[in-house]
Amino acid sequence: MSEARATLWKIGARTLATTCFVFCVISYFISCAIVPAFADTLLTKRQAQAKAVAILKGDPYGKTTADVSKHIRKAELLRAGKSICGPVAKPLWSFHVVVPAAENPAGPATIAGTLVLDAASGQLECAGLPFLD
C-alpha cells in the first residue's frame, strides 16, 4: 500500500470512529431525555375520571356516564402520603364518591366512599365502596 493510501486509510478510520462515538453519545443523551418522560406519564384528571366512571357504571352508582359523573364529588392526584389503600408508593388518582339515599336503588342509605386508581394505567388499586367486584 502506498504511503498516500495508508494516510487516507488512517484518516477514514479516524473519521468513522469519531462519527460512531458522536452518534453513540447523542443517542445516549436522547434516550436519557425521552425515556423518563414516557415512564412518568400520568393520566389527566379527565382521563382518570373516565376510567373511574367505567368501573362504577351500573347500580347503584348510575347507569349512564352523566349519572355516575355527578356522584363523583372530588378527584385528587396523590403523589405521597396515605390513601385508603395504605402508604402512597406511586402516583394514584383518588375519587370521593357519594350516592345520596334518595338516588340509591339498593336501599334508603347514602353510599359514600373512595375509589383509588393507578395514576399511570388507570387500573383499580382499591375501593372503599360497596358493590364493586
What does this structure look like?
The protein is α+β, with helices and mostly antiparallel strands. The chain folds into two domains: 1-40; 45-127, no CATH class. 42% of the residues lie in helices and 23% in strands. It has three helices and six strands. The chain has helices spanning 3-39, 45-56, 65-71, and strands at residues 72-78, 82-83, 86-87, 92-99, 111-118, 124-127. A four-stranded antiparallel beta sheet has the order 1-4-5-6. The mean pLDDT is 84.
Pick out its properties.
single chain; alpha+beta; two-stranded antiparallel sheet; 3 helices; 6 strands
Integer count of domains: 2
N-to-C series of helices and strands: HHHEEEEEE
User: Could you give the order of strands across the largest sheet?
Assistant: 1-4-5-6
| Residue-averaged pLDDT | 84
Shape: rod-shaped
Radius of gyration over alpha carbons?
Answer: 27 Å
Q: Which residues form runs of ≥5 with pLDDT under 50? A: none
Number of helices: 3
| Number of DSSP-assigned strands | 6
End-to-end CA span: 79 Å
How much strand?
A: 15-25%
Q: Quickly give the structural class.
A: alpha+beta
Instruction: Report the major sheet.
Output: 4 strands, antiparallel
Proportion of residues in helical segments? 40-55%
Draw up the topology in text.
Elements: H1 3-39, H2 45-56, H3 65-71, E1 72-78, E2 82-83, E3 86-87, E4 92-99, E5 111-118, E6 124-127
Antiparallel strand pairs: 1-4, 2-3, 4-5, 5-6
Brief summary:
Helices cover 42% and strands 23% of the residues.
